[in-house]
Amino acid sequence: MGKIKGFKEYKRIDEKYISVRKRIKNYKEFTINPKKSELNSQAARCMDCGVPFCHSGCPLGNLIPDFNDLVYNNKWKEALDILHSTNNFPEFTGRLCPAPCEAACVLGIINPPVSIELIEKQIVERGFKENWIIPKVPKNKTGKRIAVVGSGPAGLAAAQQLNSVGHNVTVYERDSKIGGLLRYGIPDFKLEKSIIDRRVDILMEEGIEFKCNIEVGKNLEIKDLEKSFDAILLSTGSTIKRDLDIPGNNLTGVIQAMDFLTHSNKYVDGEIEKHYDKYNAKGKNVIVIGGGDTGSDCIGTSNRHGAKNITNFELAAKPSSERDLNNPWPYWPFTLKTTSSHEEGVERKWSVLTKKFIGDKSGNIICLETVNVEFDNEKKRFIEIPDSHKNWDCDLVILALGFTGPENNLPIKLDVKLDKRGNISSNSNYQTKKNNIFTAGDCRRGQSLIVWAISEGREASYHIDKYLMGSSNLPRKNSFGDL
Fold first, then answer.
1. Which of 35, 229, 330, 361 has a CA-to-CA distance to 44 between 20 and 30 Å?
2. Is there a contact between 158 and 233 (Cβ–Cβ < 8 Å)?
3. Does residue 480 register a pLDDT over 90?
4. Residue 126 DSSP one-character state
5. Domain for residue 109, yes or no?
6. Does 140 fall in a domain?
């Protein structure tokens, strides 16, 4: 690659942040852009490894050594073209992806891996700054009409791909703005919504039609949808929230994480004027149950609300800071993760099982009861530790437990099948039992990463185009296999 043995000369740098004291006063992104010279040196760390496992670690098959080499040689526009050839929205993944590519980086065997996500984000931001990212309107139209139901990353990626080859694409969204999980589930301090808007503006100029506040099957009849389009893509996401079926889960103050985040995002964006007390953490003792990214987002949001204190429960034991022998490179490392939200203030507790919620006479949550647990490898389940019960005072409990699958109203009305996990069933061509109805994203594969959603949307678009035209020139994933 660009600089032989550059990985020996330069140490990895991570994205730097504005201080906690300053950043929790607002909901804006708080990253600090690195110097150009720092980016060149970080790209130089890409080590010409021969077999780039980062390709396989990335669900999109991004050509990572190629754009690293171009960045090192100050060929930023060419790097942007390479990046866009496999990824429709690097401005989203560059901010939100947990970077499985870095976990698979060959350099990571002996040293900290290449800062791939940082470089990716800076490439696309440079592209917007230099006005290199402009609408690409297809020269010829096929006359085929495609409906995309759901405007999350899978739906948007599919829409852009299908529009690029001349199909007429209409995206239906039941919320008032485009973006799905990106807009309503991700806090602004991780993704300011202007980042979504500038990309949607480009998609509109390219010819994609967006229709908001329309829920297919309710205010748009199924028969009208099927009659009006040659193909339909279902990319509705995985939106059924996992509940905690224990006593007291109906108390006031026990809420779902996505309801909490959606309300906060709408308030920040001005879609709603009043910050309802039910979803306001200000001055409250907050407990977040669930240790994933959504739980982390709830912690960061609660800090910005002005929570009195925040505690985070995780059922599993505290992970090690190093890889376990049963979790070798290049697989995703199940190690301790500390996010920027954790750094802003939270008490983290592991091996904790919540037993019941306790309320006052008015039905408000006032505390919860927990027990410590350990995992029994033989029985493959968690075992309660005797005499470890404890009560925790709380005013607000946020359940960040993930999702169980897509809502089934639309699949039922369209007469398509669900699989054993409750996801929309499809064959390897992303096709449901109805040949003209396809599916992609979390509603097909289950709750997953944004980078997987984009990959699914791209793959589905290839199969839709092939179904309509007999063959397709749309690109597919460039990879030698998934890790």
1. 330
2. yes
3. no
4. H
5. yes
6. no
Residues 287, 393 share a domain: yes
In a domain, 222, yes or no: yes
Single pTM value for the model: 0.96
pLDDT greater than 90 at residue 2: no
Q: Are 370 and 389 in contact (CB under 8 A)?
A: yes
Shared domain for 232 and 370, answered yes or no, is no
Structure-block tokens of residue 8: 């020996």
Looking up residue 71, the CATH number of its domain turns out to be 1.10.1060.10
Strands 168-172 and 209-211: parallel
Tell whether 212 and 261 lie within a shared domain: no
Give CA–CA dist 243/236, Å, rounded: 20
Say yes or no: 254 and 387 in one domain: yes
HEC profile of the chain = CCCCCHHHHCCCCCCEECCHHHHCCCCCCCEECCCHHHHHHHHHCCCCCCCCHHHHHCCCCCCHHHHHHHHHCCCHHHHHHHHHCCCCCHHHHHHHCCCHHHHCCHHHHCCCCCCHHHHHHHHHHHHHHCCCCCCCCCCCCCCCEEEEECCCHHHHHHHHHHHHCCCEEEEECCCCCCCCHHHHCCCCCCCCHHHHHHHHHHHHHCCCEEECCCCECCCECHHHHHHHCCEEEECCCCCEECCCCCCCCCCECEEEHHHHHHHHHHHHHCCCCCCCHHHCCCCCEEEEECCCHHHHHHHHHHHHHCCCEEEEEECCCCCCCCCCCCCCCCCCCCCCCCCHHHHCCCEEEECEEEEEEEECCCCEEEEEEEEEEEEECCCCEEEECCCCCEEEECCEEEECCCEEECCCHHHHHHCCCECCCCCECCCCCCECCCCCEEECCHHHHCCCCHHHHHHHHHHHHHHHHHHHHCCCCCCCCCCCCCC
For residue 429, what are its two tokens?
């061509």
Instruction: Give me the phi and psi of 179, to 5 degrees please.
Output: 140, -25
Q: Are residues 285 and 397 in the same domain?
A: yes
Q: Residue 4: pLDDT above 90?
A: no
Which of 344, 369, 401 lies at the terminal end of a domain, its last residue?
401
Percent of the chain residues past pLDDT 70, beyond the cut: 98
